[in-house]
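Contributing new records

If you add data, match the layout below exactly. Sequence lines come first and carry their own label; structure lines follow with theirs. Keep one chain per record. Anything else will be rejected by the validation script.
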Amino acid sequence: MERIMAETMREIPILYLVVPCYNEEEVVEKTASVMGEKLARLEREEKIAKGSKVMFVNDGSKDKTLQLLHGIAADDRRFSVVSLAGNYGHQSAILAGMMTARKHADVVVTIDADLQQDIEALDSFLACYMEGCEVVYGVRNDRHSDGFFKKATATAYYKLMHMLGSTVMTNHADYRLMSKKALDALSEYHEANLFLRGLIPTMGFPSDVVYFDVKAREAGHSKYTFSKMMTLALDGITSMSVRPLRLIGGLGFLMFLFSIVMCVIGLVDWVRGNNVPGYTTTLIVSLIIGGITLLSLGIIGEYVGKIYMETKHRPRYIIDTLVWREDDGEER
């Protein structure tokens, strides 16, 4: 199939699907089958060029995920495997796949291995790219499939992020298309504390949104535990906004004014001879000031910790092995 020119003077792109995997042995073979069929259909319809691949990123899985991925890649050259030396986390796994894939692809789409994100949305992603978009965000239509707690916390989180000035897109969970141009620009960002959902929108490239419905998992269970979600949420806030520090300053100023008012009231009572014990007032004021002080120190500590990690300049991931074959069958 020849790579032809679209009306926007863009060639039909080589597409790489980047799929982070952590303990996905129950679903990875089904995922490979579905994604392989989708690539074949897109190539037949001349929406992607020959040489498009699925790149699995093994993020230190402890089950048989890596062995299964090696078998899949050995049987079909459309599949490649990037295996990280340890478990670096979802964001680092995505980045490792994108940075590896950009050497070979025109566009890269990151998608989860559980098949909950509608793979049929790829057609719309590619159409937006051909119309000139460098970044296309996949946004879920609703959160009806989530439980009450997850839905409530997610809604509150996105509202908080927007209130803090972050450009993070509501209900977008790392299902996105990025062109080689956008990926090359992303490679210039070197922060250790990754929050791609907030970082990529700040780049400023032409972008669009594709809405999709979330499906049920094909097998297994979510690897995003509550603690991991909290860590991601905290990273998002501290990586993308300094407004919490400014809020602390404002709160400290208000407490200073409050303390002055209390001092004035105390002096007036003393002059008038009102010998009120004031135990309750003293207790409440002490608890309020002490609680705010500890909370403020905790928030400041998070930022100091982020600065500490950034100054180390440690690698965000280490690639252990890479299985990737040319169309002629040569393995690298």
